[in-house]
């Protein structure tokens, strides 16, 4: 678990390029390993990281269209796998990122 790390959210432009969208400071970061199997039965390892951040009015579009956004943290890039604004109280949001594997 870490506290205070910088987490950047990028969004994809209509040209297909990534641009920086939002910079947040993580309240908590928890990592783990996720494993999936593709259609051929091959194990494709990827890393899952959960970022708890303060709610920000720029975050709801990430929930609506997560495929258009990615998370950058400590030199890694993660697709947005989950967005959780607990009971929509707009206090904290848990963003789950999954490494591109």
Task: Give structural notes.
The mean pLDDT is 89. The chain has a 6-stranded antiparallel beta barrel with strand order 1-2-3-6-5-4. The protein has 101 residues and is mostly beta strands. The chain is globular, with a radius of gyration of 14 Å. 5% of the residues lie in helices and 60% in strands. It is built from 1 helix and 6 strands; from the N terminus they run βββαβββ.
Summarize the SSE layout with pairings.
Layout: E1 6-12, E2 18-37, E3 43-54, H1 60-64, E4 69-73, E5 76-84, E6 92-99
Antiparallel strand pairs: 1-2, 1-4, 2-3, 3-6, 4-5, 5-6
Tags for this entry?
6 strands; 5% helix; single chain; 1 helix; six-stranded antiparallel barrel; mainly beta; 101 residues; globular
> Describe the biggest sheet?
6 strands, antiparallel, barrel
Determine the number of helices (DSSP H or I, runs of at least 4 residues). Answer: 1
C-alpha geometry: globular
**SSE order:** EEEHEEE
Low-confidence stretches: none
Strand line-up in the sheet with most strands: 1-2-3-6-5-4
Report the β-strand fraction as a percent range: over 45%
State Rg: 14 Å
Q: Helicity level, as a percent range?
A: under 10%
Number of strands: 6
Brief characterization of the structure:
With 101 residues, the chain is mainly beta. It is 5% helix and 60% strand.
